[in-house]
Structure formats: C-alpha cells, structure tokens
Amino acid sequence: MKPEYRTLDPIGSTGESSENIASLLERPCRADSRTRSIGELARECDVTLRALRFYEGKGLLSPARDGSVRLYGSEDVRRLKLVLRLKRLGFSLIDIRALVDRILAPGSTDHVAVLLVRVEAQVAVLEEQRREVESALATIGAEIRDLRRLIAD
C-alpha cells in the first residue's frame, strides 16, 4: 500500500501558478475589505482547517476575531500563500515565520535581496538532500537484489 502525500502547494501538483513569491511581493493586497471565515480561506487556498489552526498556533497567521470566529482579510490570504510557497520550497516553519515577518514588515527595503539569498541557499540544501536520497535508493536497490537472490536460491 502506497502512502498518500498531499501537496502543500495550493495550486495542486503541477507546480504552476501565477502567484509565485515574486508576484505576491510585487503587488500589494487589493483594496479588498472582504473577510473570509476559516472554511472559506481553507477552500480558497486548498488547505485543511487543521492546517490553518496549526499555522495560527505557530504564529504564521494572526486572523482578526469576532468572538470565537476567525476572520481572514486579504493580507492574511497573501501571508498564507507566501507560507505555502516557502513550505513547498522546503523551508522549515521556523524559517518561514522569520522570512515572512521580514518580507511583510512595514518599511522593509532589503527583503527581496534577503529572500533571494535564502532561496538560492535552499537550492544547495535540496541538492544535498537529492544526493542523499539517490544514495539511499541505490543502497535499497542492492538490498532488494540480494534478498531476491536469497529467495531464488
């Protein structure tokens, strides 16, 4: 039985989106005063309610509240989309929180340059992980061959 993996990217498995990090940084949030419930945001960004609550607990999201009801505005949507994109690139939630806080900080002038350096460094991390996975797969392949040989004997 194969394990199921659900992409963390709200755009699905194709990896294509018009809302990449650059586009989320280029344009400020629309003057959209509409608020969304947690369910509406979950559907809009293709995440679970549990994930949204988890992100809130980790300080990645801070929705307004009306009593116990969470209300998400356009800036929350943008923030969540940045979180999901950075997660898709393999950043830890701790790194994501620091990056998003810096990226969206009022008056931040070097945020794009800082982000570029971090994303470029992430390439090296992922390349090393790829080498480790390839090595593990080669080792597993050899083990499978040896086990099959034992069965055939």
Notable characteristics:
6 helices; disordered N terminus; two-stranded antiparallel sheet; single chain; 2 domains; Multidrug-efflux Transporter Regulator, Chain: A, Domain 2; mainly alpha; about 5% strand; about 150 residues; elongated
Written description of the protein model:
The chain is mainly alpha-helical and about 150 residues long. The protein has 2 domains: about 110 residues, Multidrug-efflux Transporter Regulator, Chain: A, Domain 2; about 45 residues. Helices cover about 60% and strands about 5% of the residues. It contains 6 helices and 2 strands, in the order H-H-H-E-E-H-H-H. It has a two-stranded antiparallel ribbon with strand order 1-2. The longest helix has about 40 residues. The N terminus is likely disordered.
